[in-house]
Write a structure and sequence with these properties.
Blueprint (H helix, E strand, L loop, with lengths): L1 H18 L22 E5 L2 E5 L2 E2 L3 E2 L2 E3 L8 E2 L1 H17 L3 E4 L22 E9 L5 H5 L21 H11 L4 E6 L1 H10 L10 E3 L6 E6 L22 H6 L2 H15 L9 H8 L2
Parallel strand pairs: 5-7, 9-10
Antiparallel strand pairs: 1-2, 3-6, 4-5, 7-8, 8-11, 9-11
The structure holds zinc ion.
Zinc ion (ZN) binds next to strand 8.
Amino acid sequence: MRRILALLVAAWLAGPAAAQPPKAPPPASWSTVAKPSAGLPRVIGKTAQGCIAGAVALPLSGPGYQVLRPQNRRYFGHPDTVRLVETMGRWAVLGGHGLLLVGDMAQPRGGPMPSSHASHQSGLDVDVWFRRTAAPLGAAELAQPIALDMLRPDGRAADPARFGAVEVDLLKLVATRPEVERILVNPALKRAACAMATGDRSWLRRLRPWWGHNMHFHVRLACPAGQTECEPGPAIPPGDGCGPDLDWWLSDEAVEALQRRLEAARQPAPPKTLPPACQEILRGR
Ligand SMILES: [Zn+2]
């Protein structure tokens, strides 16, 4: 009797649990969605407020490059972005420049990231480190890589032992590609590139000074042809940008502006609303 009672209690305990539907997975977020959405590439919105459908993955290693921090799964982008990285890799192979180290591109469907960037949302951005490596990095170092600062210790000028003709050659290769809109680099590195550039200087216009970017440069592609939902970045002023504008970036006033920016960044800001099409892309197949 006792045994039957025990079985009945066990069945009663197990019953309702067995009848419950399996626990629904948490709704996908931009940083947890497993794979790109199906279909052709669609770049939506701005690089700091957008997303991408039909993104492709950059292979984690290829001729002339390796992808850093693969655990973050930020190696997705528009096919043009992937091709550009592969072009840079060929430059490294042909020139005997070792391996390039590729930082963040975008998440599988783009969108905001929980850390590190405001941009990189629409599959048109890629960070490439200035540090190159002669031998491939192992898994542990790829997961937690060590960057190399291109500036002197005072931060006001490029370190000529690290930032030289090879680095300028790579920036020029990227800046002269028709699909590239701009490259963000530290103002001191732009100044060094301005001083070192020979012959055609028109490409220097696409080299835009920005805070940080002393260990990596950030390439942003222009909206690819036919991508009508893609919003381009602000227009670049005429000229090579090596004159007074660049001087401002290296002034005390710019240091104060940076401090104000950092203070503003500490204030909680409401999340930006993405274009409505992005919600469909996040939830879609
Ligand atoms: Zn970046």
